[in-house]
Amino acid sequence: MSLSCLAPAQPPASTLQLTSHDTANRTGSVVLTCDPAGGTHPKYAKACQVLDSVNGDFSRITGRHQMCTLIYAPVDVSATGTWRGKPVSFQTSYANRCEADRDSDDVFAF
Fold first, then answer.
1. Can you give the pTM of this predicted structure?
2. How many domains are there within the chain?
3. What does the alpha-carbon distance between residue 52 and residue 29 come to, in Å, rounded to a whole number?
4. Mean pLDDT score of the chain, rounded to an integer?
């Protein structure tokens, strides 16, 4: 079989760079790809499922029910890239890491 008969690999439909930065000066950054799910995000399948349920609109993510401490240790997060061909640019702050994980339904849990 010659290589010319192989179909070219299709790039993922969505590719996002997710970052977080907290008051302890810890910075995290992962790549999330969806359709198919992958990348360096530790929970990429769940993160893609959450984003699929809101059509890639981070502001529409409904967090899960979980108690968090009232300790104020802000976490700034951002997402840039594309969701199904449309540009994405999102940033927000959470009161602490627990709230970031809970309110983003683990999209920013890395």
1. 0.87
2. 1
3. 21
4. 92
